[in-house]
Write a structure and sequence with these properties.
The chain has 163 residues and is an all-alpha fold. The chain is 84% helix and 0% strand. The protein contains five helices and no strands.
Length: 163
């Protein structure tokens, strides 16, 4: 989802002018898609470590690595939003690049799309963090000798019935 945001801004910059942007559209795309891929790899490594953990310390290490990946993703998204806001301000000051009312409407819809997608990414990151915290808590509370996945499923079903 994040990659769609980065590519969308690159397209908008291509349409409305390179001179209004701090970087070229290609730089935005390459930089932020690379950051996104890196964050996902870090999260995957942490998830793999947490899933094979046989001690609480090893589990915590995996969760911390996943947290680092999420934090990196949120920070890169925040930097992107700041750069995007700078472009938006420059574009708003330069209304001469708008060729028609239809052009202005299209820009507004594009920017609204980017805002909604950015908020969605931030919410997804928050939900992923809460999910990791819950999983870690359940794995630590698993009775010895019981499969953590089975225990987690049983606890989740009990919680679902209570709601």
């Amino acid at each position: 989802m994040s990659a769609a945001i980065y590519v969308s801004l690159a397209r908008i910059i291509s349409v409305y002018g390179y001179r209004l942007s701090r970087f070229s559209p290609k730089t935005y795309t390459i930089t932020f898609v690379s950051c996104d891929i890196t964050a996902l790899v870090i999260q995957s490594v942490g998830g793999a470590i947490a899933s094979i953990a046989n001690t609480t310390g090893f589990l915590d290490t995996g969760v911390h690595i996943m947290d680092a990946g999420l934090i990196f993703q949120v920070i890169s998204l925040a930097v992107f939003i700041a750069l995007w806001a700078g472009f938006l301000i420059a574009l708003k000051r330069s209304r001469s690049t708008w060729t028609s009312e239809k052009d202005a409407t299209l820009l507004q819809h594009s920017m609204l799309f980017i805002i909604i997608m950015s908020i969605s990414c931030l919410i997804r990151s928050r939900l992923a963090t809460r999910s990791m915290q819950a999983t870690t808590y359940l794995r630590k509370k698993t009775p010895s000798g019981e499969n953590p996945s089975v225990y987690s499923s049983r606890v989740s079903l009990r919680l679902a019935y209570m709601l």
